[in-house]
Amino acid sequence: KNLEGGASAVLTSKLDLAETFLAASAFSSALPHALAVEHASTVLRLDSLRAAATVCIVECLVGLDAGSIMGGGFALLAVEALDAHARGVLGKGGLSVRTRARLCSGKAELALGERARRDRAVSERDDPGSNQGGSDGRDAGNQSIDTKRRNETSKQCDANATQPLASAAASARACCSFSREAEAHYLLAMKLNETG
Question: How far lies 105's CA from each of 79, 157, 189, in Å?
């Protein structure tokens, strides 16, 4: 029991270090510490600490995605991590952890939607004949199917972003995290304004 308590204290301080790097936007420095805490808390079965470390990892991935040129790659990893650990994060994490997870989910979905729109614009720019139909009807049909699939992906990402952002705003209000509530409302308002 004392060993587990001591390990919990060490892991908590390591997670605090990761959170400090995260607050300073040093995402690549925070990520190894958060990963180490997540691994150790999994082995020691410290579920609430694992949930907090998982959300810290996801926040690092979303931050790294925002800083990347192409965007979307780290956001996809963030969404997959949240999906894989949703039960633990939402069940064992406190209200603050759940708020952060929902906000990260919304941000990651926004990044994925932006990537889908950018890919669609690039493919339309690179293939100007896609709107006119090529010499082969099958090519034009396949291109229109690809364009339709990209449009559906973009709309799905937009729909997937609004629900977690609204939920994050509500839970941030409940735990009196006004900066997270304001951020969630801002992102939600920008997305709703963009979609009309």
Answer: 6, 11, 16
Q: Which of 83-92, 117-126, 128-137 has the lowest mean pLDDT?
A: 128-137
DSSP annotation of 68 reads: S
CB count in 10 Å sphere of residue 17: 15
Give yes or no for a contact between 88 and 47, defined as CB atoms under 8 angstroms apart.
Answer: yes
- pLDDT tens across 148-183, in order? 665 666 566 667 788 899 999 999 999 999 999 999
Q: What does the alpha-carbon distance between residue 26 and residue 88 come to, in Å, rounded to a whole number? A: 26
Residue type, 155: K
Contact 52, 97 (CB under 8 A): yes
In this structure, are residues 104 and 78 in contact, taking their beta carbons and an 8 Å threshold? yes
Determine the Cα–Cα distance for residues 155 and 151; give it in Å rounded to an integer: 6
Distance of CA 167 to the CA centre of its chain: 14
CA distance 49 to 45: 9
- The DSSP code for 132 is T
**Closest to 152 measured CA to CA, from 103, 192, 112, 193:** 112
